[in-house]
Amino acid sequence: MLPPSPPVHCHRCGLSDEDLNRRWSRPDQTLHPVIYNAKGLIEYCCRVLHRIPYFYCDLHGHSRRKNVFFYGCSQAGSWNAADRTVPEDPTEFLLLPHILQQTAPAFSLNHCNFRVERGRESTARVALWRQLGITRSYTLESSYCGCDQGPYQGYHLGTYQLHEMGRNLCEALRTLYEDGWKLKLVLACSSPQTFANEQPNRVVGGIAGLGGVRTYEEEAVLTNPSDDSDYEEEYHAMNECH
């Protein structure tokens, strides 16, 4: 959570005993000052500077689902019937998770969800998407329960994996910003009907070869969690660097 109203007792309630991630729709300046001012800064960029943020992301922990995954926002997946009448380009919010599926060992595209539920209207993700028009508005969830896929299958997500996921996210954003038009072309050519026919509460299946994006298997050496000695060595080396 944003300081100086920290979660109390490892939960996300602030000092007013309210869930701060359910106050983004109409934050109170006195009761939720951090949310009020954070949203005000973003709103200033959108309404006064006329510069809508390219990307917004909340970083959360998840107590049930495994791996790392996104919650996003889709007009077609909204509880509100009026939203579903608005045309949208799903590649705008689907490309980033597709890139991460190729490049981030802990990320799971199949766990991502882009529904907009009525009970989530006051979250940062939905409020900024709906009120300020930020198309790429996400919550990035990192599991408390470890991974069930890839090189980290059967292992918890530690400091090393979280640092790695942060790097992967930044690199994916750079790829999306610099080469997004190429990736859209690859998606259109490889699976032209996928996005048109996709159910709003699901994500498209894996797409091979996203236009030169390196997969994590192609990166130079990854930590192998099956070898405890190597894993500990690289883990401590990374902590010393930071």
UniProtKB/TrEMBL annotation:
Q: Which GO BP terms, alphabetically?
A: proteolysis
Where do the Peptidase M14 domain residues begin and end?
1-180
* GO MF term set: metallocarboxypeptidase activity; zinc ion binding
According to the lineage, what is the superkingdom? Eukaryota
The active site of this protein is located at E141 (proton donor/acceptor)
**Which cofactors does the annotated protein need, by name?**
Zn(2+)
- Stated name of the protein: Peptidase M14 domain-containing protein
Assigned protein family: Belongs to the peptidase M14 family.
